[in-house]
Amino acid sequence: MKVINKFSVAPMMDLTDRHCRFFHRKLSEKALLYTEMITSKAILYGNTRKLLKFNPAERPLALQVGGSDPAELGQVASIAEELGFDEINLNVGCPSSKVKSGSFGAILMRNPGLVSKCVEAMKCSAKNMKVSVKCRIGVDQQDPSVTLPAFISSVSNGGADYFIIHARKAILSGLNPKENRTIPPLDYSIVKSVKKKFPDLAICLNGGISSLDVASDLFSAGFDGVMLGRASYYYPEIILSRVDSQLFGIGKPKNMIEVISELIPYIDEELDFGTRLSQITKHLMRAFLGYKNAKEYRRYLSENAFKKGANSKVLLNALSIIDHN
Fold it and tell me: What is the mean pLDDT of residues 115-129?
């Protein structure tokens, strides 16, 4: 069985950009971080360097790609490996109508043979990089007890190193992406049955995992890894600052004030390159949930970080509002 990272932060559109990831890496040395999903066509025919730009400090880092053309995905995998990504992940779970119309994302669960060919092309092009697949337990009227094992069997034959399974169906007609994250019921049991059926395959569970205690219980239940999304993003101190100590047994929970302070050199460098302060601080808004004066901290950043010429002093001023005790 492939060795995988036991904890990862899910790829989230409009959230897990490179500034978010740099912040998250300051909180956890061990978590596997992901880019937002980027389509294969955007990478091949757009501004590749800009789309795939990252700071080496973000590693270990996975690129999530959306696409369904094996040749294109093979090229993308080669580019990703050359640029230094640690893993590449094929999105077979996104339920949005835009993604559906592009014939990738969750709709690909109806075509495991094509997904297998996509994975095979990626593996052939990037021999030293892990290739994973993120999927749902099924789509629409599929019976997951039948179609999910068949999907896993077919795609694993294509060479997938491991699977991240969001333990919900994707409803492709009638629910938007936000509703698809909450309305279809969670079914951890079907994912557990897949792990039992394929004991030599590494399976990472995603969906509805709200705490590190729950994550620990899932490891005990036999899952090889867990992926947390919005819980990690919206509760960074509760989740990410404690990942290394609680799940990996190293270090101690990070001090959020120290972590934010350590971002100042990064922010100064980014501002010199034309990044706006608000592009970075938007990811820091919930850093101090539960702290005295947290509301005032957020208000100060909201009112000042977007202003022309705003620099790292704005963040330092915001930090001074927080009660250090």
Answer: 97
